[in-house]
Amino acid sequence: MKARDLLEEIKENIKDYDIEIFEKKAKDENTDQASKQRALFHIQNYNEIMELNIEEEDESNMEIDDGLINDIKDELARFFEGCSPESEEIFKRFITYNCIYLSLIAKRPLHPIGIDMHNGKTVFAEEKDGETIYYCDIKEEQAKIAKDYYTCQYCVCKPSELK
Question: What is the number of domains present in the chain?
Answer without folding.
Answer: 2
